[in-house]
């Protein structure tokens, strides 16, 4: 068993480069910097070391997101695998490049932008515009599904029928002294409670 997985949280050193390959598919090349800091035991000074990583993205939806939202200095989170590529320079000499590849069929969570806190105090989060639109669509469908569920289950009809039955029982109870005349208000309360529960259910 073996595992080839890389996780990076860093900043773009330059604007993304997007080009089209010979097969017609697009590819995005990124330069991502990660830094580590430590205190030197000898002089007590803080030291910092920066590593630069070449990242290659083949996923079509991720490339569209990169083209629309990313620029130099933005912070990104990504998951990929190490891959060494062989190529030739202008003199014909063989060259090798080790890259972090985000594959074509990667999950949407494999590449995300870290949104910075703005001046209004908005919190930073990892998100994707396309995924946000999907959530909006699902939210719209959930509200219509909620309305449709109430119509199909006929909760309003049952509420009215229960009140009619209570009125009939109330009329019969009046002949026996009216000892159970308050059942109407109690039986109608659960119907309203169920409606409230449906409104609180998260979709």
Your description of this structure?
- By secondary structure, the chain is of the alpha+beta class.
- It has two domains: 6-88 and 95-127, OB fold (Dihydrolipoamide Acetyltransferase, E2P) (Beta Barrel); 138-200.
- 36% of the residues lie in helices and 33% in strands.
- The protein has helices at residues 60-69, 129-153, 155-175, 183-200; strands at 6-12, 17-20, 26-39, 46-57, 75-88, 94-102, 111-114, 126-127.
- Strands 1-3-4-6-5 form a five-stranded mixed β-barrel.
- The longest helix is centred in the last third of the chain and has 25 residues, at 129-153.
- The model is unreliable at 119-163 and 170-203 (pLDDT under 50).
- Residues 116-203 are annotated as: Disordered.
In brief:
The protein is 36% helix and 33% strand.
Fourth-level CATH superfamily of the largest domain: Nucleic acid-binding proteins
Terminus-to-terminus distance: 40 Å
Describe the biggest sheet? 5 strands, mixed, barrel
So what's the CATH class of the largest domain? Answer: Mainly Beta
- DSSP helix fraction: 25-40%
**What strand order characterises the main sheet?**
1-3-4-6-5
What name does the CATH topology of the largest domain carry?
OB fold (Dihydrolipoamide Acetyltransferase, E2P)
Which structural category do the helix and sheet elements fall into? alpha+beta
Portion in beta strands? 25-35%
Order of helices and strands: EEEEHEEEEHHH
Q: Overall pLDDT, averaged?
A: 72
- Total helices: the number is 4
CATH architecture of the largest domain: Beta Barrel
The strand count comes to 8
Show unreliable segments: 119-163, 170-203
Cα shape: globular
How much is the radius of gyration in Å? 31 Å
């Amino acid at each position: 068993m073996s595992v080839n997985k890389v996780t990076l949280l860093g900043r773009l050193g330059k604007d993304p480069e997007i080009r089209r390959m010979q097969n017609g598919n697009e590819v995005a090349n990124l330069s991502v910097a990660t830094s580590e800091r430590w205190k030197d035991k000898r002089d007590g000074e803080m030291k910092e070391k920066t590593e630069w990583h070449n990242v290659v993205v083949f996923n079509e939806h991720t490339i569209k997101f990169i083209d629309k939202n990313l620029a130099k200095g933005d912070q990104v989170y990504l998951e990929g695998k190490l891959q060494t590529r062989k190529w030739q320079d202008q003199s014909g000499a063989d060259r090798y490049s080790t890259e972090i590849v985000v594959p074509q069929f990667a999950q949407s969570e494999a590449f995300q932008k870290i949104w910075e806190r703005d001046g209004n105090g908005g919190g930073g989060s990892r998100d994707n515009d396309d995924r946000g639109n999907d959530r909006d669509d699902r939210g719209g469908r959930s509200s219509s599904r909620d309305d449709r569920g109430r119509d199909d289950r006929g909760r309003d009809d049952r509420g009215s029928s229960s009140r009619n039955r209570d009125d009939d029982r109330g009329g019969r109870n009046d002949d026996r002294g009216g000892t159970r005349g308050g059942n109407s208000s109690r039986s109608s309360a659960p119907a309203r409670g169920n409606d409230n529960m449906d409104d609180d259910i998260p979709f």
